[in-house]
Specification:
Strand content: under 5%
Distance between the termini: 59 Å
Low-confidence stretches: 1-13, 158-173
Shape: elongated
Largest sheet: none
């Protein structure tokens, strides 16, 4: 057993198999592209919104719903998406979120009515809320090594939560 794998087992982190360590960088690239899709989608719709409004014939007052539908669904379901990733697995949640997000994007691009566009944007927010936390948790589990795990375990033993607050910080002015 090598020193690296022995140290990894000491802190409770299994060493990566050789084939998985080679694919770590591919995983990083895929997760980064997925995160870029989620973040970029929130702002890129502003560029396409005038032509979508002209093609679908909705009012200026309804323009806000195209943006708000995504933001509301994404923001309100983000914690639930993280919990689903914990319950059903990071990888499957990531793949479902990615496929659903791509499908909802295609549906939004092919929308024939304002309601269909808002529904597609809501679905994008829902699947984005699955995709984002699963992607970040995949990163944290893919890029663990024994050295950083030892640092985390050592720093948790001396965490500031266990320390007493300084009197100078709490002194009244």
């Amino acid at each position: 057993m090598s020193l690296t794998s022995a140290a990894a087992n000491d802190v409770g982190v299994a060493p990566l198999p050789p084939d998985q360590s080679r694919h770590r960088w591919w995983i990083l690239a895929i997760v980064c592209i997925a995160q870029l899709m989620v973040v970029l989608d929130a702002s890129i719709v502003n560029i396409a919104l005038p032509s979508a409004q002209h093609d679908l014939g909705f009012s200026n007052g309804n323009r806000q719903w195209v943006i708000t539908a995504y933001a509301l669904a994404f923001g309100s379901l983000l914690l639930l998406g993280g919990r689903i990733a914990d319950l059903f697995g990071r990888k499957i949640t990531f793949l479902v979120g990615l496929a659903g997000f791509a499908g909802a994007s295609a549906l939004g691009g092919a929308a024939h009515s304002f309601g269909m566009l808002v529904g597609a944007r809501t679905a994008q927010g829902l699947f984005g809320a699955l995709l984002a936390p699963a992607a970040l948790s995949l990163l944290t589990t893919t890029f663990t090594d024994a050295k950083s795990a030892r640092r985390r375990s050592a720093s948790s033993a001396a965490s500031p939560a266990r320390a007493q607050p300084s009197a100078c910080c709490w002194a009244a002015s």
